[in-house]
Design a protein that fits this description.
Layout: H1 3-28, H2 34-57, H3 63-66
Helix pairs in contact: 1-2
């Protein structure tokens, strides 16, 4: 792996970890805070979805991203 692939893999890993943290936060937050957290989740989703489509386009395999069901984060309540 080259340094750019390592960078991308690390970046995806950090963003997926943040999504997991937000998943926990939305499960324990007050009802009035849920929309704010859902907005954060949507932002991470958008970035990761773009990274996933671009990595496919450029034939860069980021297995962590390929194995993750990003759409499930859109249905968190």
């Amino acid at each position: 792996m080259n340094k750019y692939e390592n960078y991308l893999i690390d970046l995806v890993s950090i963003q997926l970890e943040k999504l997991k943290e937000l998943e926990y936060e939305i499960s324990i937050c007050k009802e009035e805070d849920k929309d704010y957290i859902k907005g954060q989740i949507m932002a991470y989703y958008d970035v990761l979805a773009i990274m996933k489509s671009q990595s496919d386009l450029f034939n860069i395999l980021i297995s962590l991203l390929a194995e993750t069901d990003l759409e499930r984060y859109l249905t968190l309540k």
